[in-house]
Amino acid sequence: MNTDCNPGWRAQRQPSLPTVTLNGIHWQPWIVLALALLLAACSRDAASPEAQIRALVAQAQVAAEARDAPALRALIAADYADAQGNDHKAIENLIRLHLLRNQTIHLFTRIGAIAFPQPDRATVRVAAAMAGRPVASVGELAGMNADLYRFDLELVQRDGEWHVQRATWEPARLDDFW
């Protein structure tokens, strides 16, 4: 006797969700979001400043891959200013433009040096490969059509949260990802 209410349920194929690649591992987006939220919640009190910065980079990667402009804008300090003359509004517009131009965004990131010149200030170097398909490892970058950038970020901590206050970026080399 079959006690299943819906005996055909096993044959129904569930639509697969896109995966998010973080440091070469493919994750379901909801797992990444849960981990990012957990890291962000833990980072407020218990995590080291370095762990907080790493969580911020992971949060930015998840938001970019999800094409979540409000989440990306929330990471930018209100008093953002850079050497190219960009302010907070200009960076918001750059984010919006990038999201409009790219229907799918896959990032592969490597965090380089993190420094704390003052307790509420940090600098971090991030190498980011931006591609139209997932990147599982550094080795895949050599044969892939991806935009490679090196970001030098200056962060400020206000009310327990880190924000990007200044950034410079330039084309990266594969060496930046090792």
Keywords for this structure?
single chain; alpha+beta; four-stranded antiparallel sheet; about 30% helix; about 30% strand
Give a brief description:
The chain is 31% helix and 30% strand.
Q: What is the CATH class? A: Alpha Beta
Order of strands across the biggest sheet?
3-4-5-6
- Can you name the CATH architecture? Roll
Main structural class? alpha+beta
Beta-strand percentage range: 25-35%
Query: In angstroms, what is the radius of gyration?
Result: 19 Å
Order of helices and strands: EEHHHHEEHEE
At CATH level 3, the topology is Nuclear Transport Factor 2, Chain: A
Could you describe the largest sheet, including whether it forms a barrel?
4 strands, antiparallel
Report helical residue fraction.
25-40%
Number of helices: 5
- Give the uncertain stretches in residue-range form: 1-18, 26-45
Walk me through what this model shows.
By secondary structure, the chain is an alpha+beta fold. It has a single domain, classed as Nuclear Transport Factor 2, Chain: A, CATH 3.10.450. Helices cover 31% and strands 30% of the residues. The protein is built from five helices and six strands. α1 (29-43) runs antiparallel to α2 (49-65). The termini are far apart. The model is unreliable at 1-18 and 26-45 (pLDDT under 50).
Topology:
Elements: E1 20-22, E2 25-27, H1 29-43, H2 49-65, H3 69-73, H4 88-101, E3 106-118, E4 121-131, H5 138-141, E5 147-158, E6 161-171
Antiparallel strand pairs: 1-2, 3-4, 4-5, 5-6
Helix pairs in contact: 1-2
